[in-house]
Write a structure and sequence with these properties.
Structural class: alpha/beta
Helix content: 25-40%
Oligomer: single chain
Bound molecules: L-homoserine
Number of strands: 12
Distance between the termini: 16 Å
Shape: globular
Order of helices and strands: EHEEHEHEHEHEHHHHEHEEEEH
Radius of gyration: 20 Å
Length: about 325
């Protein structure tokens, strides 16, 4: 059986999940974990390092999992890893949304794989599905609930909790970003719908051109009014291909309580794809949290091990590894 030696950059909520899952995978060996000294786990001290360079230079290591979060440092770490000819698997939607073309080009040039299933929809394998569907189908519209934190908050507000209590709980459960502004103001969902749109239509999406409205202005009165009218408020994104351009929106919407999205609660995410000829497809699953997101990461590792790096584009932009 082929073995893969990996290093994990970042030992937070997701990094711990990846380590946990990999411990039970006989052909994936976690040989190093990078983080600051105060985050080292005393039970596995020999695996930990705060020296990323030593990981990149280690020829035994085939693949880097990037779960540091944030933008600049994580981006630099991934670029360095690729230059040292390591495959990279990331959950970093900000880096993928802003720099996908750069990463595809650099990984092609270095003949390694860059995979990012975990960047959208947590445990929902939406990127792999879009990639596979495109072989036969045209995608005409993508709609989604693509942020676990805000869906959790809205669900709890409809159950009677106030906004701040619900946010605290989402943070405690590890759904929210370190700075929850990206969740609450919609930047996180905007990045995710940009990634899916880019993949569906092979078009680089400039996220600065997407207008988004967050959920911070939703009040208890709005929730009560929606309830009284058999409605629900959901924070949703939509992306539609119209002729040669793509229209994207990210905003809270008042929906009839019979809408499919009313079944999508707490940290669950959902994606509806309108396609031809397959018609409508719906996906639902946990969009945030340690193990679902880590599962998406480990699936990418397995795809790379088995030469099925499906996560990048069409033939034109696709790269083959190994
Ligand atoms: N903060 C994100 C969310 C994490 O709540 O959906 C998963 O991308």
């Amino acid at each position: 059986m082929k073995q893969m030696n990996i290093a994990i950059l970042g030992y937070g909520v997701i990094g711990k999940g990846v380590f946990e899952i990999c411990k039970n995978m006989p052909n994936i060996n976690v040989v190093k974990i990078f983080d600051r000294k105060e985050k080292f786990d005393n039970n596995y001290l020999d695996l930990f390092t705060d020296n990323a360079e030593s990981i990149f230079k280690d020829k035994k290591i085939d693949l880097i999992v990037e779960v540091l979060g944030g933008y600049e440092f994580a981006r630099d770490m991934m670029l360095q890893a690729i230059k040292y000819r390591k495959h990279v698997v990331t959950a970093n939607k900000e880096v993928v949304a802003k720099d996908i073309d750069l990463f595809v080009n650099v990984s092609r040039a270095n003949e390694v794989c860059f995979a990012y299933e975990a960047s959208v929809g947590g445990g929902i394998p939406i990127i792999k599905n879009i990639k596979q569907l495109k072989a036969v189908n045209t995608i005409t519209k993508i709609s989604g609930i693509l942020n676990g934190t805000t869906n959790f908050i809205l669900t709890k507000m409809f159950e009677g909790l106030d906004f701040n209590e619900a946010l605290k709980e989402a943070q405690r459960l590890g759904f929210a970003e370190a700075d929850p502004t990206a969740d609450l103001e919609g930047y996180d969902m905007m990045r995710k719908i940009a990634i899916l749109s880019d993949l569906a239509w092979n078009t680089f999406i400039n996220i600065n051109e997407i207008k988004q409205t967050g959920i911070t202005k939703i009040t208890k009165e709005d929730v009560d009014a929606a309830k009284a009218n058999n409605k629900v408020i959901k924070f949703v994104c939509e992306s539609v291909k119209v002729d040669d351009h793509i229209e994207i929106s990210v905003e809270p919407k008042v929906l009839d309580n019979t809408h499919f999205f009313n079944n999508v609660n707490n940290e669950f995410n959902a994606v509806i794809l309108e396609t031809y000829p397959n018609d409508t497809l719906t996906f639902i699953g946990k969009g945030a949290g340690s193990l679902p997101t880590a599962s998406a990461i480990v699936l990418d590792i397995v795809d790379i091990m088995e030469n099925r790096c499906l996560v990048c584009y069409d033939n034109e932009r696709k790269y083959k590894i190994n």
